[in-house]
Amino acid sequence: MKCDEKLDKIFCADEDAPLSLISRTQFLFHTFFCDHCRTVMEQYEDSRELMKTEFFYDVPDMSDTIMNQVFMEETIPEDVEIYEWISFKKWIIAGCIIVVSLASAFFGINFNAVAVSRDSSYMLSIGLVIGLIVSIYGLLFIGTQMKQLRHFFDHRD
Questions:
Q1: Model pTM?
Q2: Structural domain count, the chain
Q3: Does 13 map to a domain?
Q4: Sign of CA dihedral 71, 72, 76, 82
Q5: Residue 107 belongs to domain spanning
Q6: Is there a single domain that holds both residue 48 and residue 93?
Q7: For residues 58 and 50, is the Cβ–Cβ distance under 8 A?
Q8: In a structure prediction context, what are the per-residue pLDDT tens digits for the chain, which is 157 residues long?
Q9: Is 70 contained in some domain?
């Protein structure tokens, strides 16, 4: 038996299926003469001992500190001017253009032929692109219109 086979036999043995006394004795005899197997077994035993002990450091519980920071209410003073680089009207027009262009993408000349030949993988990529475009639009819209949105939600009642 080669060294690799013997080491595999040792590594695969566990508490549920231990090695027989004869196999263990043969392997111990082999490690007495084979430096490579002896070194590998020493490393294996060291790693098993290390895994038996708890070698992860205790991490302090920071959840209270984090949650206090999250729930700490900071209000934006009313006199702070939030820079708006695109007006509300232009955002609505851009949103309508995006919706029309996304809806019309399915009425292209070869869309049905491509969709049939590519199966669902084509539709998945189209769906991901549409989701990405709508998400970016929403992110930029909300980010640039914070003052109007805050005013709308504060005075909604």
A1: 0.39
A2: 2
A3: yes
A4: negative
A5: 81-154
A6: no
A7: no
A8: 578 777 777 777 766 677 788 878 887 888 888 888 888 888 888 888 877 776 667 778 888 888 887 777 665 556 555 556 677 788 888 888 888 887 777 776 676 677 677 776 777 777 888 889 889 988 888 877 777 777 777 776 5
A9: no
